[in-house]
Fold each of these.
Amino acid sequence: MSTYLRELMCVHCDTRFAVGPMSAGCPACRTETFASSVTPTYDYERLRRDLGDGLLREPDEGLWRYRRLLPVQDARHEVTLGEGGTPLVALPSLAGELAAEDVWIKDESRNPTWTFKDRNAAVTVSTAVELGAQAIVVSTSGNYGASIAAYAARAGVECVALTYPGIPEGTRTLIQAFGADLKVVAPEERWEVMQQGMREKGWYPASNYTAIPTNGAFGHEGYKTIAYEITEALGTAPDLVSVPTAYGEGLFGIWKGFDEMKQLGRVADVPRMLGCEPAGGPLALAMADPSQPIARVPRTPTVARGIGGSVNTYVSVAALHASGGTVAQADDEAIMAAQRRLAAEGFFVEPASAAALAGLRTLAAAGDLPEGLRIVLVNTSSGLKNLEAFNTAFSDRELEPATHGAF
Ligand SMILES: [Zn+2]
């Protein structure tokens, strides 16, 4: 199968590398306090010539119809559970509240394991298969671990999931249901255990394993397809895309997708990206001081546990700067209020996902959200993934008995 894939390039220093795993980021600009991920580049000139004004996609459904812009070189290595092709649904009453021209929700909870992580996992596991991996390791206590476990099962590849004491019951059940070997490690030992397994057992890393986090070279390519689908649905780019953010791999991938659409002449401008994190998160600090693009903060508990990080990545800062975007923070109360507001529209999203709306409200309250924008909120995962957070609001209420004739 022909491919337009060319090489890997550092997001920070532009150094080029041959295509390979490179999960620890760019060696050329790494220091004791800094590291950047690398990202695939494609032959955009040839793509532009070959595609003309024609369809970006091939006839397949979902994510793989964009295979010409994905890093898997042989279609026989594509691992799919039918991910992608999620709906973009208009929320007119919310648009009114935010003084926006339009607000849409890109509902990623319709993916195979109910999260946008499936786009990442599909590409990560496919590239692992293409690179000859016999076993995949992932260090996580959240949605990504369950997603990698599902795709590894689909590929028939062994999966080791390293997690921490206190993993949420739902995630644990899913990871085990998909047949992964779930092991508990102390948080301070996880990188060491992972690196040892990579050295001694040939585990292929599907997640970060260094103290200064970098994302793998390929997973964010799955997230790009969210931008392609939005572009195809709207016929253009929106003005603002709001994305819940921890390591910012999704934020970066979506930005890159729009940037590629611009390079291919499909959109006039790349939308501003809004990274939404819990109050006290690291990304706001990293954006505030350009000389310190990697920030660390004490880890504080948050109801939005999927985005409760203590350190950011360089790529999230790079995507925000490149798009003229910004960061918005929201506390637990605001996040839960946003979850209820979306539920009132019929969308039951995870608290981490609700941060996309809570962050927009933070901007609006500060007078930093211009009127008349066309906005896309990315719902990254289903509320069923974290029922505990929502149940606390209801579980202590007595259900009212109803009998025939009681109304
Ligand atoms: Zn570099």
Note: The chain has three domains: 5-77, 88-115+218-391, 117-205.
Amino acid sequence: MKTTILSLMVLSLMAFSVPVMASGDVEHPPHQHWHFNGMTGQFDKAAMQRGLKVYREVCSACHSMKRVAYRNLVDLGYTEDQVKNIAAEYTVTDGPNDEGEMFDRPARPSDHFVSPYPNENAAKAVNNGALPPDLSLIVKARHDGPNYVFGILTGYEEPPHGHELLPGQNWNKYMPGHVIAMAPPLSDGVVAYDDGSPQTVEQYAHDVVNFLVWAADPYLEARKRLGISVLIFLLVFTGIMYSVKKKIWSDVH
Ligand code: HEC
């Protein structure tokens, strides 16, 4: 009997350790300090504005963000006029007009972010067959999203001895399987900041993750605020109920 239980325990331990072994060759990205984490977490608007700049000047060459509309950018602290100007820098195809033809016009705040490619096949054709995923929900679509995306952007290195890469492949410490089709998109100084923040790969990665977290979860702040109000309400309510109970039972001995 004892041996059966023992072997069952060993078996279940082995079963649990399989996934750990399978993912053992991928390093887990280190945890960064994020302003939006924790019970009272808030968005860092300055970081999000810089992150939008990184997205617009670098990532948007390959990655769409179809779920975000220009008008949503007021959340980042821009005025309606600033949002109009940002949108107007892009061109969308609209139509058909009265003659039945499609036409180009500047984007409006109500338009969604313009995609770099007309369709997925076009996107793959210019990226060695790999599809750059839409980034609107990427931090939700990956385990430990913010740290993971930060890790990918800062985790490029030379492949270890004995690993040959094909053309168009790159080695990344944090990519499952290590081989990634995206060439390192960031390098120090590629995006100019006008608020004095460091123009380094780490800072760009930090800022673009702040922007992507907002894009994937724009109500994060409101939800946390509501959570805190509920907790305060419950505390006060408990206090009131306690004094009511004391009063009601005060005559009973
Ligand atoms: C030159 C094109 C290009 C640029 C610029 C680019 N990417 Fe990519 N990205 C790709 C491609 C292609 C893939 C798919 C890689 C693969 O599947 O191996 C990818 C994949 C990714 C992934 C997903 C990795 C995964 O887990 O599947 C993330 C996250 C990402 N990119 C973020 C970014 C961010 C943020 C920027 C801007 C700082 C950026 N990329 C700039 C082409 C690009």
Note: Helices lie at 2-22, 45-57, 80-88, 120-125, 138-141, 145-154, 201-216, 220-248.
Amino acid sequence: MDLKKRSLSMQTFFNERVDGYDNAHAGLMESKERITAALPDNTRSVLDLGAGTGLELTALFERFPDARVTAVDISEKMLEQIQTRPFGDRVTCIAGDFFEVPFGEGYDAVISTSALHHFTREDKTVLYAKILASLRPGGLFINSDWVAQTQEEEDERFVELEENPQGRSHIDTPLTIENERIALTDAGFADIEFRENVPESYTLSVARKK
Ligand SMILES: C[S@@+](CC[C@H](N)C(=O)[O-])C[C@H]1O[C@@H](n2cnc3c(N)ncnc32)[C@H](O)[C@@H]1O
């Protein structure tokens, strides 16, 4: 399935599920909170890719009440929920596709959780280079997301996606940690680390712009 079609299917999927979304993700709150714990004390400006309803932002604004966040998401209905949160006035929302909208620049950190496991390694390299360009020198990209445990698992999911182009609209295709490392390296990131996460099927990747 091509990128554009996939993005549009994600938009429909999440626009239709916004009502039950926070309950569905209640069990994943620790994976979202670990992002905030990994941020340096001097964090002020943050770009959140696939921010959804803003679940990861509660912990972030508790630790960094003066932060300013730019939230990008293709689902305008998910973003509407962010504006209703107590920190809504500190978030600038951009409705659009990661691969199409400008991100801006000079961020202390780019964060993402549960939102980037839908792309090939090649597409991720392009996206990661765009993320790198949006960071200030020394800035961090922190991604808390699902990873495939083996290359076989990664390959099987991409086959499933190709064999069901009109079937299920949402087939997840996480990469292995090894392929995540290659994509981050090829995009130009330094000091790449993969930390333990909860659940175990997730990893917390932390990468720096030199
Ligand atoms: C599972 S939700 C995660 C939301 C939030 N980060 C959290 O952890 O609760 C994934 C989000 O990524 C967004 N998304 C998926 N593909 C996207 C794309 N190509 N461009 C922008 N947003 C996208 C979806 O609309 C959705 O809101």
Note: The first strand starts at residue 45 and ends at 49.
